[in-house]
Amino acid sequence: MTETLVIAGARMLGRDGADILVEDGVIAEIGSGLSRTGARVIDADGLVALPGLVDLHTHLREPGYEASETILTGTRAAAAGGFTAVFAMPNTSPVADSAGVVEQELALGEAAGYATVQPIGAVTVGQKGERLAELGAMANSRAKVRVFSDDGFCVFDPLIMRRALEYVKAFGGVIAQHAQDPRLTEGAQMNEGVVSAELGLAGWPAVAEESIIARDVLLAEHVGSRLHVCHLSTAGSVDIIRWAKKRGIDVTAEVTPHHLLLTDELARGYDARYKVNPPLRREEDVMAVRGGLADGTIDIVATDHAPHPVESKACEWQAAANGMVGLESALRVVHQSMVQTGLLDWADVARVMSATPARIGMLEGHGTPLEVGRPAQITLYDPSVASTFSAADLHGRSENSPYLGRELPGRVEWTIHNGVVTLAAGTVVEELNA
Ligand SMILES: NC(=O)N[C@@H](CC(=O)O)C(=O)O
């Protein structure tokens, strides 16, 4: 039994303040002056009501790397950030390349209860890029996998990429490509440019991303399949996606919050919290990805939440792992980079952080507008406040956030997943009332 909730006076998209009644995990009524005996009343005065956020790109690390994150801790972080569903990347140990592993992840997500965990399957066995994994078995499993990715690695062999694109057509799936030419990025430490030259660090050139995206949109066109581009980071990549969409190619693209806000200048301090793959780029690239997200060339924001233990980050730059945690900060960073700049409004945020990621990933029960009869996936956000992001804001097992000590606007106040309150007045709920 879920609680009955009355969310009072929320700022709804496209209408004035309204009350939302949640019963049995569903939005039962929207109106004014709503009440129910025994209902828990949530004062939402001044809070923006968004459909529960959906992250198409999360690293939950379980099975295998539980020192960095688990499905429980990662979904608590998700709840803290306003997410009600996360897609789990397959670079676990064992790799999620079989029905057994994806079903295990699904079950662990259900047991945790903080957010829907939708596994992403690996494209190739062990993410080694040599032969296709059993995509059909994962698709037909209880986890109903529709998104496949070797994220962390590029599906570099064009014939394997072609075959994967062809294969997923049978069940309407999508290949989410980590676009990185491995030869052009051997030993790469940061964006290749003025800063890498000054620091003497090996560069990761934009062309290593752009050349793979260009190849893959053409492959997707050739075989008539669906491609999704992970964490797009350069101005040139935005141009290629814009061209491909104009041509009618079935491609979607994501950008991370960090690529919308941070630049490679941050590498100057050699603080490995800023080391990430793809790397932070130039100011021009940040402006181009913002523009691409604003004009719809880039479809969604995805966090690439990538937890790493302290020993992998509190070390010299070259030895440090790539990756940043991002679930708790994502909405606030999008608020700063896209809403405060006037590039997106809250309805757009609902589209790029909830509706479209759910659609791309073919996830049912998420990303739907806040309407009567819909599953109660709701995020309540206070845009009027600001605070310094600190370790107290992090709820996962790792603290490798680039925002620690940085002022960010807003605060996620409430998260409701299938009618269950997972975040209450900014505090992650310890015992879920499911
Ligand atoms: N994005 C990252 O910087 N890291 C990812 C993998 C990857 O994409 O390299 C991780 O799993 O840690």
TrEMBL record:
Substrate binds at residues 59-61, 91, 277, 308. Transmembrane segments: none annotated. Binds 2 Zn(2+) ions per subunit. GO terms for cellular component: cytoplasm. The keyword Nucleotidyltransferase does not apply. Gene3D superfamilies: Metal-dependent hydrolases, Urease, subunit C, domain 1. It catalyses: (S)-dihydroorotate + H2O = N-carbamoyl-L-aspartate + H(+). SUPFAM superfamilies: Composite domain of metallo-dependent hydrolases (SSF51338), Metallo-dependent hydrolases (SSF51556). Keywords: Hydrolase, Metal-binding, Pyrimidine biosynthesis, Zinc. Its EC number is 3.5.2.3. Zn(2+) 1 binds at residues 57, 59, 151, 304. GO terms for molecular function: allantoinase activity; dihydroorotase activity; zinc ion binding. InterPro entries: DHOase, DHOase/Allantoinase_Hydrolase, DHOase_cat, Dihydroorotase_CS, Metal-dep_hydrolase_composite, Metal_Hydrolase. Zn(2+) 2 binds at residues 151, 178, 231. One of its GO terms (biological process) is 'de novo' UMP biosynthetic process. The active site is at 304. Pathway: Pyrimidine metabolism; UMP biosynthesis via de novo pathway; (S)-dihydroorotate from bicarbonate: step 3/3. Its cofactor is Zn(2+). It comes from the Bacteria. Residues 48-234 form the Dihydroorotase catalytic domain. Belongs to the metallo-dependent hydrolases superfamily. DHOase family. Class I DHOase subfamily. Catalyzes the reversible cyclization of carbamoyl aspartate to dihydroorotate. This is Dihydroorotase. It comes from Microbacterium aerolatum. The gene is pyrC.
